[in-house]
Amino acid sequence: MTKEWTPRIVAFFCNWCTYTAADLAGVSRMKYAANTRTIRLMCSGRVDPQFILEAFARGADGVLIGGCHPNDCHYGEGNYKMLRRFALLQRMLKDLGIGEERLRLEWISAAEGEKVKSVINDMVKKITALGPLDLPGKFADWDRELTELAPAVEPAPVESAVTHA
Amino acid sequence: MDKVNGNHDVRIGFYVCQCGHNIAAMVDCAELAKYVGQLPNVVLSRDYKYMCSDPGQELIQKDIKEFGLNRIVVASCSPLLHEHTFRSAVEAGGLNPFFFHMVNIREHVSWVHTDRAEATAKARALARAAIRRVAHHRALEVKKVPVHPDVLVVGGGIAGIHAALTLAKAGKKVYLVEREPSIGGHMAKFDKTFPTLDCAACILTPKMSEVGSHPNITLWSHSEVVKMDGYVGNYTVKIKRKPRYINEDLCTGCQECISHCVYKEPKFHDDFNEGLGKRKPVYIPFPQATPQVVLIDPEVCLNFKRGVLTDKCKKPCVEACGDRKAIDFKQKEELKEIKVGTIIVATGFQTFDVGRMPQYGYGRYPNVYTALEVERLVNASGPTAGDVILRDGCHPKSIGIIHCVGSRDKNTNRWCSRVCCMYSMKLAHLLKEHTEAEIYNFYIDIRAPGKGYEEFYDKLLEEGVHFIRGRVGEVTDWAFIPEEEGKLVIRVEDTLAGVVRRIPVDMVVLATGLEPQADAQDVRRLFNMSCGSEGFFLERHPKLAPVNTFTDGVYLAGCCQSPKDIPDSVAQAGAAAAEAMVLIDKGHIEQEPNTAFVVEAECSGCKSCIPLCPYTAITLNEGSKKAVINEALCKGCGTCVAACPSGSIVQNLFDDEEVFSEIQGVLAYD
Amino acid sequence: MKYSYFPGCSLKGTGRAYEESLLPVLKVLGVELEELDDWNCCGATAYMAVDEVKACVMASRNLAIAEKAGHKELLAPCSACYLVLNKTKHYLHESPVVEAVVQKALRQANLSYSGNTPVRHPLDVLVNNVGIEEIKKHVKHPLKGLKVAPYYGCQIVRPYATFDDQYNPTTMDRLLEAIGCTMVTYPLKTRCCGGSLTGTLPEPGLLCSYILLKEAITRGADLIATVCPLCQFNLDCYRDKMVGRWGNETIPDPRNKDARVPVGPYLDIPVVFFTQLIGLAFGLSEKELGLQRGFAPMRKPACAQPQPAAA
Predict the structure, then answer these.
(1) What crossing angle do the helices spanning A49-57 and B656-667 adopt, rounded to 10°?
(2) Is residue C309 part of a domain?
(3) pLDDT tens readout for residues B278-302
(4) Which residue range forms the structural domain that includes residue C113?
(5) What's phi and psi for C226, nearest 5 deg?
(6) Which of B79, B635, B663 sits opposite A51 (nearest CB)?
(7) A102 to chain B, minimum CA–CA distance in Å?
(8) Does C188 lie in the same domain as C101?
């Protein structure tokens, strides 16, 4: 790639609070880094940990989740469920060798357009300092390693057809 | 081939809206359209100046027919603004409206980024995601939820009163709940209203008594909402009716009990008169109170000790009441439960606490007053019968009125409270009328935007009221020269003359600003609303939806949404009533069909989902031992979908396939 | 309790009565002070007005020495020193440019400052650390009946009001009430005394100080208690000029409000440091507390003298 690397961050925003706040930031013409790609969901409680893992696996350098402040969830408690998953996921990511700082959960209310701007700018700065995660690249490397190793491995004896009693 | 949709091949029409300059200035629309045009499944890709316009929408409809499109993606503004517009356009073109998806490249891209290349790259990624996602969309039908025809209006100030009357006259059944013992709100305390100088009570009381007597309005004063459950069109609300110790139905408002009370003279802090007057333990808030019913204050009535009945008093009030038997010391708090379809919140404002600006001397110097106190002072039915007599017994010969106390101030409240310039001028006029004093108004700007307001300002100038442009620094009693001794000195920089002035006056009036009620945060949680950063309730859109909230079926009216004068409060109240009537008269609400359902074959019966639903929409089917979701109760939050370990819950419009394809789309390089 | 101590130039010069009264009072209360080794002038308002960055460098040297001394906090009794040191801390924190220049300069002297040493005022320490109850225990002669006008001056409340209210501070009021004094209502608690103007623009400077004295007299105070050596100097040392200029102005007779009297004779109202009053209450001697350094003798001033018998 000839272009200088800049992080790609997938953002899951809840419709009622954070997405609205991002709209407000737009209406107020606030300027912030262009590294996020927003996916709109109705509630931060909809965020499946698999979404987050998929995002990293597909090449995201960071994942941002935006939900309503505790006690303010449009659906009552969806954001609390997200918080629980987030706590577990952070530990898991650490074990997987993906830095915890790459996953971020923020409570942003519909009036906090300014916070959307500052969180995104801050996250871009931090992830730029961390460098690219590039999981697809790593997967490709591992695949290549395995392919190169294959000839060196003795083929296993082929099992004859299994018979069942 | 799109396996979700069987053998349909997916034919997508993609439209980029330039939105005039709004998008085109920062996103290369032509390039974006060209890029998307070569993505798989995209049949046509256009860029157009204004997609939401009639020709724009017609273009979509034409293309659907001409090119046999079965998916539409529009990249333009926020779906929160126009998703509905485009879905309707798509429907009019003969396609199920949920085959539409929208990409936000305005609020989230063109308006917030400064590099054209970066913005266009982001728009490309978002568009690519939408193209992949929309292939998985399925045909859906909007959910129709019936709307209960009754309305709850919370707050009995002028806004709440007007909303309640409008709805009642339209034949709707209204519950009007007011926290104070009488409706009327702040307007009931005013003397005259600007700019016509109509007597506030004279224009308010006919409306108040109409509310009290209208058959369609159930008025519960001295009551508060304590819980709201349910969803749009079907709210169950619990209301606490605080005890007055008077049976409202039996009291005729004769007030004999008050004159017979053991307290011969009124002794206690009178809230309505801003503490300038006194009342007895049994009292009526003000003569024209609605309901015209007295009440007993258990904190000071001798019959109670710390609110608990002791039976210590002889109770001449009961004797005076006689046959009517309206007094009931044993009255208890009552909890009422009602079902309504819509709610209008009109809980009003509170005035700025002048204790936060000690430099103006309120409380330290007896002759410093707040504007509301002055309203009671000049009022003929106030504690001094309209005689402007100060706390130290004198009549003022010079008065200073300080604007912007607690408004337009970085240290207290940043906003302009909108009404203070006008009411300060009104008070200047009334005080001049009552006292012939020299009046000085200290202002930053004169804000007189309404009908007849500027003309009112001119009239005041002709009356000889002095206007000094400068924010007052201090009100003090130290005298620089003998003529200032015994007076309150206002120190201010006269910014038009370029000098610092010391103006000795007898009386200082502080034009206090408007702020949200002290319990605004608790109230807004009660009704599932948001607040803006200043604490006022948040409207759905500041320009186009000033009375709607983000919760369907809950509306706002009056100063609880932002400071405003009486005509604007009344107008908003009418607007909120009309919005409520839209729902009631239609009879049903159309809800996004983003509900979840369980794919029975894949459900393992683990019951993880059941306790997660805030609407208790999931139950275990005893027969099949599988989870079942009640579509009518499901609100589409998706929590159960994310939690299901076997992935057997699917959410319409936000199912896993759709979201995964979006994730892959934003990250794919091509 | 042990503090690093920054006396500043005034407390070793014209304001030495402040140090003379502060040290014994703190000793009674068990507060130890260690004077900074080789401290330099803080620059006060003068240097800040000329070159802010260089002024910060000067002030930071003292902060760096304090940090090196190892005690947790630095006590700076003079209001100007107090403000300059705090302002410097703020600038170091807020401006990377100032921080860079300062740290570079400090390195030349083998010093550094991490920005963490709080700078405290004696009023703050006495009321918030030692505590009013503790002070009351040491009072041998409560100054009953002494009416005091509490004058805080401007630099300990503007622009930063860290330990007291910006408009109506009460720390000194509470402190002096604890030793038995009665506070008079004094609306000019934080009004400027004129500061350095008495040296540069005498007319307005003198007027500022005169206003403060006149109001204290009008309110019936026996004396004025100050916290700042320059305030004390301005209020104390120009009485003759004030009498010459405004001596014939009349004020309501403090003993009889219906009459008016010329203010001149009343301008002998004493102006002392609050620490001198505390010292008196603790039973320390006048000589120990430097009371002889005041220009007005510590006796009841004219406004508080009993009325002369009718002729």
Answers:
(1) 30
(2) no
(3) 999 999 999 999 999 999 999 999 9
(4) 2-120
(5) -120, 165
(6) B663
(7) 16
(8) no
Are residue C102 and residue C137 in the same domain, yes or no?
A: no
Q: Which residues 181-220 of B are in CB contact (within 8 Å) with C?
A: none
Number of A–B residue contacts, CB under 8 Å: 140
Chains B and C touch (3+ CB pairs under 8 A): yes
d(C-alpha B512, C-alpha B409), whole Å:
12
- Cα–Cα distance list, B191 to B375, B376, B385, B430, B465 (Å): 6, 7, 11, 9, 20
**Cβ–Cβ gap C167/B358 under 8 Å:** yes
Question: Domain with B113 in it: what CATH number?
Answer: 3.40.50
| A81/B551 touch (CB, cutoff 8 Å), yes or no | no
What is the chain A residue with the closest CA to B651? A46
Looking at the fold, whether C111 and C168 belong to one and the same domain comes out as no
Count of CB atoms situated within 10 Å of the CB of B596: 26
Taking the C-alpha atoms of residue B350 and residue B519, their distance in angstroms, rounded to an integer, is 10
Look at residues B324, B342, B364 and tell me which one is the last residue of a structural domain: B324
Q: Which of A30, A43, A76 sits opposite B112 (nearest CB)?
A: A30
ipTM over cut 0.85: yes
For every residue of B471-532, DSSP letters joined together read: -EEEEE---SSGGGTTSEEEEEEETTTTEEEEEEESEEEEEE-EEE-TTHHHHHHHTT--B-
- What does the pLDDT look like over B424-467, one tens digit per residue? 999 999 999 999 999 999 999 999 999 999 999 999 999 999 99
Instruction: Provide the residue type at C217 as one letter.
Output: I
Closest to B382 measured CA to CA, from B286, B284, B293, B507:
B286
Q: Does B162 map to a domain?
A: no
CA distance between the termini of chain B: 20
| Non-local CB neighbours of C242 within 8 Å, separated by 6+ positions | C206, C209, C210, C213, C267
Domain count, chain C: 2
Stretch (H or E) spanning B656:
helix B656-667
Where does the pLDDT of residue B4 fall: very low under 50, low under 70, confident under 90, or very high at 90 and above?
very low
Domain of B643 in residue numbering reads as: 595-651
Q: What is the rounded distance in angstroms from the CA atom of residue C81 to the CA atom of residue B349?
A: 46
Of the residues A12, A14, A23, A116, the best mutation for testing chain B's interface (the one with the most B CB atoms within 10 Å of its CB) is: A23
Q: How far is A59 from chain B (nearest CA, A)?
A: 6
Q: Which tokens hold the place of B56?
A: 């724009």
DSSP assignment of C136-190: HHT-SS--TT-EEEE---STTTSS--SSS-SSS--HHHHHHHHTT-EEPP-TTTT
* Average pLDDT score over residue span B26-36: 94
Q: Which of A130, A78, A79, A138 is nearest to A105 (CA)?
A: A79
Q: Cβ A58–B668 below 8 Å, yes or no? A: yes
Q: Length of chain C, please?
A: 311
Considering only the beta carbons, identify the residue of B359, B479, B485 that sits closest to C167: B359
The nearest CA of chain C is from the CA of B387 a distance in Å of 29
Number of inter-chain CB pairs under 8 A, B vs C: 16
Q: Please tell me if residue B485 touches chain C, with a CB cutoff of 8 Å.
A: yes
For residue B132 the two structure tokens come to 């992949």
Q: Which residue of B has its CA nearest to C219?
A: B478
d(CA B149, CA B317): 42
| Smallest Cα distance from B614 to chain A, Å | 6
Output the CA torsion sign for C131, C136, C142, C144.
positive
State whether A75 and B614 contact (CB < 8 Å).
yes
pLDDT (average), residues B20-44: 93
For residue A108, the chain B residues in CB contact (below 8 A) are none
Phi, psi of B203 (to 5 degrees): -90, -20
CATH number at residue C264: 3.40.50.11810
